[in-house]
Design a protein that fits this description.
Radius of gyration of chain A: 18 Å
Oligomer: heterodimer
Helix content of chain A: 25-40%
Number of strands of chain A: 10
Distance between the termini of chain A: 32 Å
Strand content of chain A: 15-25%
Largest sheet of chain A: 6 strands, mixed
Structural class of chain A: alpha/beta
Number of strands of chain B: 13
Structural class of chain B: alpha+beta
Distance between the termini of chain B: 36 Å
Largest sheet of chain B: 8 strands, mixed
Strand content of chain B: 5-15%
Order of helices and strands of chain B: HEEEEEHEHEHEEEHEHEHEHHHHHHHHHH
Chain lengths: 265, 495
C-alpha cells in the first residue's frame, strides 16, 4: 500500500494525505490512509459502510480532526500528529486547510433561513469578504450552471431534494476551492432525482475541477473516475483506475463488495 | 470557549456599569444642582398625613416632609428623598442608602442606643383602632391574645407585643386598616393623628378609635446614624424653627393645633385632604400610574430582558462549550437563580451586599437582580434551542469557513430563535409582572404607585384593578409582538 513515492514537491498532485489515523473512542476508523489526487482528476472512494470512506473525506475538510498523519491540499499542509490541541495557531492552520476544499453533504445542509442565492453568497461575502455585487453575479452564474437560475430567491424548503443538492454544490463552488468533496451526494435522494445531481458532478469533472467523491453509484464511478479507491475497515484495500478496481478487481474483499452491490439478491 | 469567557465578562460589566447612569432617576431632587451637601431622607410616602403623595400632583408631601425641608433650609442641605417601606427603613439607614429617617420615628431607649435620635418634633398618643362595633377592646389590657396589624419594626408593634397581642405584619398604615376592616386582624395601634386622618380622608366609618394605647405621650424624632454630625445640625435647626414659629405653622396647617409642643389641643385633620369618591381616586391616580408603567416598568423590563438574554446565551454557550469549569459555573448559576425566590435575590443585592461594601443604586440593583433572574431561567431555553439546530448546520458553516461567532450569529441563532421565541415570551411576560416586586428596592414602578394612591384613599379594589388592567394591556401587547415574530421566523419553514 506504500507504492506511492514520497515527494516534497507536489508535482501534479492537488491533494496528498499520508498516514491518516482516526479513532472514535475505542473504534479505530482510519488505520493509516494515504491518498493522492492529481489536479483536475476525479477520485472515487467506495467501500462498505463503516469502512472509513466518509471519515477520510471529512478529514480532508477537517470536519473530523485526524489523530495523526499529514494532509496537504495545494500549498497548505497540516501535520495532525504535531498540531496543538487548541490555540490560535491550531485554529489558523485548520482554517487554512479547510479553505482549500468545498464540501457537499449527503443531507445538503443548506441554511434553511436563507434563500438560495443567500446560501451561495454567504461564504464569499461573509468569510472571503468579497464585494456583494461581485458575489451575487458569480452566484447567479453558478446557479445557471447547476440549472437553478430561476430559484435564486426561493427558500430551500421550496425546492426538491435534487435541487437542494445542486444548490449545495453551487454553495461549495462559490468558495473557489482547490478540490471539491462530495459525501454520498445522492444517497438521500429519491431515485428519479439522482441523475440530475450526477450530471452536474460529471460536468464539473469534465470542466477540470479536482474532485473527490464518496458514492455507492458504482456505474457512475466507473464512468467518471480517474482513480478508484476501495476502502475496508479503515485501510485502502485496492486502488487504481476504474477499469482496474471496478472492472478487474484483484483483491477478494473488493470482488465480494462489488458483487454484493452490483448484483443484490 | 474563550469567547464564552469574554462574553460573560462583558455581560457583567454591562450589567453593573451601564445602568448606573440612570440611577439618578430614582431620587427626587428638591433643588437644582448646587454645592450644598446632599442628605438622603428615608420616608414611607404611604403614611398620610405625615408622608404621602398628593392625590392631584403626585408630589411627595406631608407634615414630616415639610418639617425636614424646613430643617434642610436652615441647615443648608440639599435633600434627596428615598421612599421605602417602614420595615426596610432602618436597614436602609444602616446600609447608608439614606442618611436620615423623617417618618414619625418614635423615640424609645432601644433605638436611642442604636441610632442618633434628634429632638422631638411631634408629640402624640398611641390609640387602639378596631372595626366598628367590636366589643371588649378598650384598653391595652384587652388586647392580650388578639391580633394586631402592624409594621413589625414600629414602636406601635412593640406596644402591642408587650401587651400580649399577636402581630400580623403589614406594610404601612392603610394596609393595617384594611386588615382590621376586613376582620383579618382584631385591632391596630398607631398614632392618633394617622388614625384620624384615615377616618377623615377615606370617608369611611368602618373603623373606630376606642381608646389610648397606654398613658404615655410618644415623641417622634428624626433618626440618623450614630455619630453623624448632621444630627446636631438638625437639632439646632429644629430649635430655631420652634423659636421662629415655623414648626407651629406647619403643624397648624395639617392638624389645626401645634403637635410640636407637649399637651397641645385636640388634633383636627378635617381641613386637610377631603374624602374622594372612587371615581375621583381613579381619575387622580390613573395618569401617575400610567406614567410609572411607561417610564419605569417598561424600561426596566426591556433593559433587564436584554441583559438577561446576554447572560442566558453566555450560560447556554458555557454549558455547551465542553469545558468542565465553564459548564459547572453555568450550572451553578442556573441552579441558584431558579432555586431561590426573586424577592430574596432582590433583598440580597439591595440590602445585603452593602454590608460587604458593594452598593448599587436602586435601578442598578433592580436591573441586576432581574437580569440575573431572567438569565437563569432563559439559559436552558436558549441551550435547548441551540441544540435543536441540526449538527449539519454547524458543519456547513465550518465548511464555508465561518468561525465560532460568525457561525452562531449568522447560522445558529436565527434558527434557534424559532424554537426559543415562544418560551422566551413567557419569560418576558413573567419578568414584566415581576417588576411589581421592585417596591422593596425603592423603585417606584406601577404597583408601588398604586400603593401610594391606595395609602391615600384605601380604595384598594378600583386602584389595583386599574394596575391589573395596565399590566394586562402590556402583556397583550407583548403577546402580539410574539405572534408577529413567530410568523416572521417561520417564513423559511415548510408548512
Amino acid at each position: 500500500m506504500t507504492d506511492i513515492q514520497q515527494t516534497n514537491d507536489m508535482g501534479n498532485l492537488r491533494v496528498r494525505a499520508r498516514g491518516i489515523h482516526k479513532s472514535f473512542g475505542d473504534h479505530h476508523v482510519l488505520r493509516g490512509i494515504d491518498l493522492d489526487v492529481a489536479a483536475g482528476s476525479t477520485s472515487v472512494l467506495i467501500g462498505p459502510s463503516g469502512s472509513g470512506k466518509t471519515t477520510i473525506l471529512r478529514s480532508l475538510n477537517v470536519l473530523e480532526r485526524p489523530d495523526s498523519g499529514t494532509i496537504r491540499i495545494d500549498h497548505v499542509e497540516v501535520d495532525f500528529g504535531t498540531l496543538p490541541d487548541k490555540g490560535a495557531s491550531a485554529r489558523q492552520q485548520i482554517a487554512a486547510l479547510r479553505a482549500q476544499s468545498g464540501m457537499v453533504f449527503q443531507a445538503h445542509n443548506l441554511f434553511p433561513h436563507k434563500t438560495v442565492i443567500q446560501n451561495v453568497i454567504e461564504g464569499p461575502v461573509q468569510v472571503q469578504k468579497r464585494p456583494l455585487d461581485e458575489a451575487v453575479d458569480e452566484a447567479k452564474a453558478l446557479l445557471d450552471q447547476v440549472g437553478l437560475s430561476d430559484k435564486a430567491d426561493q427558500y430551500p424548503f421550496q425546492l426538491s431534494g435534487g435541487q437542494q443538492q445542486r444548490v449545495g454544490i453551487a454553495r461549495a463552488l462559490a468558495l473557489k476551492p482547490q478540490v471539491m468533496l462530495f459525501d454520498e451526494p445522492t444517497s438521500a435522494l429519491d431515485p428519479e432525482l439522482v441523475g440530475e445531481v450526477l450530471s452536474v458532478i460529471k460536468d464539473l469533472a469534465a470542466e477540470g475541477w479536482t474532485t473527490v467523491l464518496v458514492t455507492h453509484e458504482i456505474r457512475f464511478a466507473e464512468h467518471v473516475a480517474d482513480q478508484v479507491l476501495f476502502l475496508d475497515e479503515g485501510v485502502v484495500v485496492e486502488r487504481g483506475t476504474s477499469a482496474q478496481v471496478i472492472g478487474d478487481p484483484r483483491e477478494e474483499r473488493t470482488q465480494q463488495f462489488l458483487k454484493r452491490i452490483l448484483d443484490p439478491a | 470557549m474563550r469567547h464564552a469567557v469574554r462574553l460573560l465578562v462583558l455581560a457583567f460589566v454591562g450589567l453593573v456599569v451601564l445602568p448606573a447612569g440612570s440611577a439618578a432617576a430614582t431620587t427626587t431632587h428638591v433643588s437644582q444642582a448646587d454645592d450644598r451637601p446632599v442628605v438622603r431622607v428615608g420616608t414611607e410616602g404611604v403614611y398620610p398625613p405625615f408622608s404621602f403623595h398628593d392625590a392631584k400632583t403626585d408630589k411627595l408631601t406631608g407634615f414630616d416632609i415639610e418639617v425636614i425641608k424646613a430643617v434642610a433650609k436652615k441647615a443648608g442641605w440639599r435633600l434627596e428623598f428615598v421612599e421605602t417601606t417602614f420595615d426596610a427603613i432602618f436597614t436602609a439607614l444602616e446600609a447608608r442608602r439614606i442618611d436620615v429617617i423623617a417618618n414619625q420615628v418614635t423615640f424609645n431607649p432601644e433605638r436611642d442606643a442604636k441610632y442618633g435620635l434628634g429632638t422631638t418634633y411631634t408629640y402624640s398618643r398611641g390609640v387602639i383602632v378596631v372595626k366598628k362595633g367590636t366589643k371588649g377592646i378598650k384598653t391595652l389590657k384587652d388586647i392580650k391574645g388578639k391580633t394586631a396589624a402592624e409594621s413589625i419594626t414600629t414602636s406601635w408593634a412593640d406596644v402591642a407585643r408587650k401587651a400580649g397581642a399577636k402581630i400580623q405584619a403589614v406594610e404601612g398604615f392603610s394596609q393595617a386598616a384594611a386588615l382590621v376592616v376586613q376582620g383579618r386582624a382584631d385591632l391596630l395601634i398607631n398614632d392618633n393623628i394617622a388614625a384620624l386622618d384615615y377616618l377623615n380622608t377615606t370617608g369611611k366609618d368602618d373603623i373606630e378609635i376606642v381608646g389610648n394605647a397606654g398613658d404615655e405621650v410618644s415623641e417622634q424624632v428624626l433618626a440618623f446614624r450614630k455619630g453623624d454630625p448632621r444630627l446636631e445640625e438638625s437639632n439646632k435647626a429644629l430649635a430655631e424653627l420652634k423659636a421662629d414659629g415655623t414648626l407651629a405653622k406647619i403643624s397648624e396647617k395639617y392638624f389645626k393645633t401645634d403637635v410640636t409642643v407637649e399637651n397641645a389641643g385636640d388634633v383636627d385633620v378635617s381641613g386637610g385632604r377631603a374624602a374622594r369618591s372612587d371615581t375621583e381616586v381613579i381619575q387622580d391616580a390613573a395618569w401617575p400610574m400610567l406614567k410609572k408603567a411607561l417610564l419605569v416598568t417598561i424600561p426596566i423590563t426591556i433593559i433587564s430582558f436584554a441583559f438577561g438574554l446576554i447572560l442566558a446565551v453566555a450560560a447556554a454557550l458555557a454549558r455547551i462549550s465542553g469545558s468542565r469549569v465553564l459548564s459547572a459555573i453555568a450550572k451553578a448559576y442556573i441552579s441558584i437563580i431558579r432555586g431561590t425566590p426573586l424577592l430574596v435575590q432582590l433583598f440580597i443585592i439591595f440590602l445585603g451586599l452593602p454590608e460587604v461594601g458593594i452598593k448599587f443604586s436602586p435601578w442598578t440593583s433592580a436591573i441586576l437582580a432581574l437580569s440575573l433572574n431572567v438569565g437563569g431561567y432563559a439559559a436552558e431555553v436558549v441551550r435547548s434551542a441551540i441544540l435543536s439546530v441540526p449538527k449539519g448546520q454547524f458543519e456547513a458553516a465550518s465548511t464555508v469557513g465561518m468561525g465560532y461567532w460568525q457561525t452562531y450569529r449568522r447560522i445558529i441563532f436565527p434558527q434557534a430563535a424559532r424554537t426559543a421565541v415562544p418560551p422566551l415570551s413567557n419569560t418576558l411576560i413573567s419578568l414584566l409582572k415581576d417588576t411589581s416586586l421592585l417596591a422593596v428596592v425603592t423603585v417606584t414602578e406601577l404597583t408601588r404607585q398604586a400603593q401610594f394612591a391606595a395609602a391615600n384613599s384605601s380604595a384598594y379594589l378600583p386602584l389595583y384593578c386599574v394596575a391589573a388592567l395596565y399590566y394586562w394591556v402590556m402583556c397583550v401587547g407583548l403577546s402580539s409582538v410574539q405572534g408577529r415574530l413567530e410568523t416572521r421566523l417561520n417564513r423559511f419553514v415548510a408548512r
